[in-house]
């Protein structure tokens, strides 16, 4: 059985992580838009950018997936908020719970990476969405803002890139542990 990396990326941060992971493990990386077949794969590594509480491409990629003997699933989210903050990790877990079945989630290994944003490159729809969110957050008392809200406010309108390929290391260890 082979292995596969599937990614959902709108602006490239997740794609770059997926390509680096592919380079370092020799596992092919496929865009989720190309609807790769998963049933014959031993290890499936799914990476997706975080978009307003969802992980891009994840639900569609895993829609008809169910575990077969010996199959492993690694889920990797890429977002702006710092995953070292427990509050951010809790939020991402809650998003995953909304998108995936408890069976999938309980058997998957979950990792979080940090991406970036360049407001100049956002689509009009995304720019408008972020503007509305920013305006509403500015009216929110600081004690009611979450760590994710603060990350959005600090980076609003800017170009920031928190990509850290070193953060792929635990994922590579896990893949090697699974594929030996
Ligand atoms: C409309 C929009 C919504 C976003 N929502 C979140 C979010 O809920 N949590 C988060 O951590 N980052 C959020 N981000 C930041 C993206 O996750 C970040 O830019 C990521 O690197 C995007 O991955 P990509 O470049 O592969 O598309 C959002 C960005 C946009 C434009």
Question: What count of structural domains?
Answer: 1
Helix/strand-derived category reads alpha/beta
Largest sheet: 6 strands, mixed
Tally of DSSP β-strands: 8
Radius of gyration: 17 Å
CATH topology: Rossmann fold
**Which distinct ligands sit in these coordinates?**
flavin mononucleotide
Please indicate the percent range of residues in DSSP E strands (runs of 2 or more).
15-25%
CATH class identity = Alpha Beta
The percent range for helix content is: 40-55%
Tell me which CATH architecture applies here.
3-Layer(aba) Sandwich
Low-confidence stretches: none
Write structural notes for this entry.
The protein is an alpha/beta fold. It has a single domain (2-116, 161-179), classed as Rossmann fold (3-Layer(aba) Sandwich), CATH 3.40.50. It is built from seven helices and eight strands, in the order βαβββαβααββααβα. A hairpin with a 2-residue loop joins β3 (41-51) and β4 (54-55). The protein is globular, with a radius of gyration of 17 Å. The two termini are 12 Å apart. Flavin mononucleotide (FMN) binds at residues 9-15, 49-53, 78-81, 115-117, 122, 126, 129-130, 148.
Brief characterization of the structure:
This protein is 40% helix and 24% strand. By secondary structure, the chain is α/β, with parallel strands linked by helices.
Layout of helices and strands:
Blueprint: E1 2-8, H1 13-25, E2 29-31, E3 41-51, E4 54-55, H2 58-61, E5 72-79, H3 86-99, H4 102-107, E6 109-114, E7 116-118, H5 124-138, H6 147-155, E8 159-161, H7 169-179
Parallel strand pairs: 1-2, 1-3, 3-5, 5-6
Antiparallel strand pairs: 3-4, 7-8
Bound molecules: flavin mononucleotide (FMN).
